[in-house]
Specification:
about 300 residues, mainly alpha, 12 helices
């Protein structure tokens, strides 16, 4: 399948499903954190997903060991991926998830800025910038009141989340601008899962985390969902999309994830559902539509 310059209906539908899955993941992380410390949780997820994706690749005859120029960018993407998640989880010791998400979801802007230099074949139009700005405004509407209520060390966590956003964008750009863009999605993902499977448990030890301290059936089920559905199936689909579609257009859909996360929290955890959620969903939806509509005359 040759690369495309715009998102077709199949890509749009798949991205909405992925954002829904990633939104539900926010709930399962909360549930699993009751029994497994966060960074170790991410490491265990990467270990399990590495095994699953490797088995899937072997069953499909994907050549993982051939020399195709992906080793260096693959290891770089893996390191970026590992430290992104370490920063996200560590930041929650200093700031709230609702504050942090505002800083984390600046990532699409870093992808767009980096694309100006690294992805000349994916030029950003004014409408795309405007659409992403409108979608980000939806996230601010959803969580913005928390910006007015910082705790003493919240700025430390906020900076960590911002750094994680930079790493998220850098990972996407590394994949899209290197030989990884021509590699099988399984190989792209295994670089990141493999490195993070090694790095994250060591970071968990370095952070002095409690580890597995209260395992229950719900905790293990939440970790299994993250491992099988999120880190294996959804990430494979994401890297397949990155290989075939413009990264800047795909990234604009990520603004749906925190909105779906709040909706999932309301449905699964009984968390409050306010009018701001629906305002945010309308703004994000409008922003995505503006960012992805074809230029006039096409």
């Amino acid at each position: 399948m040759p690369p495309k310059s715009h998102l077709d209906r199949s890509a749009i539908a798949l991205m909405v499903v992925l954002c829904l899955v990633w939104g539900v993941q926010q709930v399962t992380i909360k549930l699993a954190s009751a029994g497994i410390s966060p960074v170790l949780q991410a490491g265990l997820r990467s270990i399990g997903a590495s095994v699953l994706v490797w088995a899937w690749a072997m069953s499909r005859g994907v050549r993982l060991g051939e020399a195709d120029g992906t080793l260096r960018p693959g290891l770089l993407a893996g390191v970026l991926f590992a430290f992104e998640f370490a920063l996200i989880f560590w930041a929650l010791d200093f700031t709230t998830a609702s504050r942090g998400v505002i800083f984390l979801y600046t990532a699409p802007f870093f992808v767009a800025l980096g694309a100006l230099w690294l992805l000349p074949n994916e030029p950003m139009r004014r409408a795309q910038w405007a659409g992403m700005g409108l979608a980000f405004a939806g996230i601010v509407v959803l969580f913005g009141e928390n910006l007015l209520l910082p705790s003493g060390q919240a700025w430390i966590g906020d900076l960590m989340m911002l750094a994680a956003a930079v790493l998220w964008g850098a990972t996407t750009l590394t994949v899209k601008s290197s030989a990884l863009a021509r590699a099988a999605p399984e190989k792209m993902l295994l670089y990141q899962l493999g490195v993070s499977a090694l790095v994250l448990p060591l970071l968990a030890l370095g952070f002095g985390e409690r580890g597995i301290h209260a395992p229950t059936a719900l905790v293990w089920a939440s970790l299994a969902f993250q491992t099988v559905v999120v880190a294996s199936a959804s990430y494979l689909a994401w890297f397949w999309l990155i290989r075939h579609y413009p990264a800047t257009r795909l990234s604009s859909f990520s603004f749906l994830t925190p909105v779906f996360g709040v909706l999932a929290g309301a449905l699964l955890l009984g968390e409050p559902l306010t009018p701001a959620v629906f305002i945010a969903l309308a703004l994000v939806g409008a922003g995505i539509w503006i960012a992805n509509r074809p230029p006039a005359g096409n």
